[in-house]
Amino acid sequence: MILIVDDKPENIFSLKQLLDLNGFETDTALSGEEALVKILKTTYSLIILDVQMPGMDGFEVAETISGYSRSKDIPIIFLSAVNTDKKFIARGYASGGIDYVTKPVDADILMLKVKTFHRLYEQKLELIKIQRELKSEIEFRKQAEAKKDEFISIASHELKTPLTSIKGYVYLLDRTIGNSDANGRKYIERTKTQIEKLNNLITDLLDVSKIESGKIEFNYKHFRFNDLLTNTVEIIRQTNEGCTINVSNNTDIDIYGDEMRIEQVLINYFTNAIKYSPESNEIYVTCQLTPDNDLKVSVKDFGIGIDEQKQRQVFQKYFRAEDTSYQFQGLGIGLYICSEILERHNGKYGVQSEPGKGSTFYFTLPLASEQKH
Ligand code: ADP
To answer: Is 358 in the pocket of ligand 1 (CB under 6 A)?
Structure first.
């Protein structure tokens, strides 16, 4: 709605008619004081304000409005018979006005201005609405996210207890059966493999909740990186028959860190390289020293690869490339845990990849001799 403020009823009448004819809703005030009372109660899209009025003049009204938070952004068109002087025009702008029309009013010009301001005001309202909706959407997602983390924390703790019992009973059964029943042994071995997978999933979920609550702990000590790498490669070879892991390593260094957690990173990189390479069974592992004297470990596969935009997201919590997620099992938390472990060791990480050709995941760790501890 547009507010017309003029002390002369005949001026109000003609302006009102013009605006009504052009489809605008209008309201009127015969003095600055009356206008201020109305502005406090109603939100207008535009104010057409006569400058010369007895009592409060148009500039004073505009100055007062600019102090009201709810109406300070309403555009104002000043109407004046005399103050065409530059300094008066400038005064109009300084007091929050947006345009200035001199009397006698040219109806076409006035309507052009009114339509432009009205449209701008509507667009502004629309933007404010969108901004509000976006804010509440972000807030909602942040809560939703907190609830998800809380649920994961509770669920993984609850799952861990019965799983530990199942594991115990399967090992008892294993001993009871001994070598007497070949089929029984086969099924027990398969059960153990599945229990191990379930255990790893739950451990990862527990790690995520520990990271979120800031309770993940690291047991730092010195260790030989090559011994860790050799053992880890051996574990992967044993559990992934037919997979060839080529290691190229001419480093021989000490790392100061949590050996188990660095092993977790290596296992994650290796198992991903195998999992996401359904048509290849070769991995290349390279260890080298960077110009900054850090250890850099790269794990190269010849698998499905990752799109360039997604390469930046793979280390984010719960990220899974949606085009391939139905084909490969996972929770999208392994690399997130790796990133946290590496950051806590002052390491860096990343990936280079070409879709259809393969990926190289890498990480760096400072040498023990370079660490401040
Ligand atoms: P998960 O494998 O359980 O989904 P990760 O956090 O280990 O979770 O990996 C996140 C995502 O990154 C995967 O879902 C996959 O889309 C992508 N990804 C990880 N490693 C590779 C890889 N070697 N080749 C192709 N894509 C990969």
So the answer is: no
Would you say residue 94 has pLDDT above 60? no
331 lines ligand 1 (CB under 6 A): yes
Torsional class of 23: left (φ above 0), alpha (ψ -120 to 50), beta (otherwise): left
Q: Residue 11, exposed/middle/buried by CB under 10 A (0-12, 13-18, 19+)?
A: middle
Cα–Cα nearest to 36, from 74, 93, 92: 74
Domains for the chain: give ranges and CATH numbers. Answer: 2-105 (3.40.50.2300), 143-213 (1.10.287.130), 221-370 (3.30.565.10)
282 alpha carbon – ligand 1 mean position (Å) = 17
276 lines ligand 1 (CB under 6 A): yes
Distance 315 CA to ligand 1 centre (A): 9
Q: What does the pLDDT look like over 124-179, one tens digit per residue?
A: 889 999 999 999 999 999 888 888 888 888 999 899 999 999 999 999 999 998 88
pLDDT per position as a tens digit, 265-285: 999 999 999 999 999 999 999
Interacting residues of 269 by C-beta distance below 8 A, sequence separation 6+? 297, 299, 338, 361, 363
